[in-house]
Amino acid sequence: MAERRSERLAQIVGAARALLEERGPDALTMRSVAETLGIRAPSLYKHVPDKADLETAIVADGLAEMADVHAAAIAGHPDPLLALAQTYRAWALHHPHLYRLMTAKPLDRDRLPEGLEDRAAAPIVDACGGDPDRARAAWAFAHGMVSLELADRFPPDADLGAAWSAGIDAYRPMEVSADPPR
Predict the structure, then answer these.
(1) Which residues contact 38 (CB under 8 A, 6 or more apart)?
(2) What's the DSSP call for residue 109?
(3) What pLDDT digit, counting tens, does each position of 124-175 carry?
(4) 76 domain-assigned
(5) Which of 6, 87, 92, 138 could form a disulfide with 73 if both were Cys (CB 3.0 to 4.6 A apart)?
(6) Are 58 and 98 in contact (CB under 8 A)?
């Protein structure tokens, strides 16, 4: 997927994302996107080869949006990991269908704009003290929590705020001690 999009492709991706967000993944068909735009489905294929490419473009938009939202959340925040966790959760819960599209299937990295995945990961790596392994583990925790919350898998009396706090604490960068272990 090219990094620079034509105006028409941007309209197509925007309409597809709106359908996904409003009506869920079953509504995301080439025919429904075309109908939303007031064109015939074959006209879409001049701009996007197939549904997989359309989904990749939507995922790319979602990753770019998340990268911006997360970078803004941690910028200058005294507790960047807390800010990131709160923002991640809120964004995912506000965009459940897009979030699932972005995370439920293997990521087709070859179709994403170059550098986008690193840009999307940068805020969590930064919030985890620059440790990419800790960042992956923290992302896995956040993804698991959000996925379970979206699936309504927690008991009604579960204190999700406390669970998030415990998880965030587990992934904070470790303080380096001035004294070596004995």
Answers:
(1) none
(2) G
(3) 999 999 999 999 999 999 999 999 999 999 999 999 999 999 999 988 766 6
(4) yes
(5) 87
(6) yes
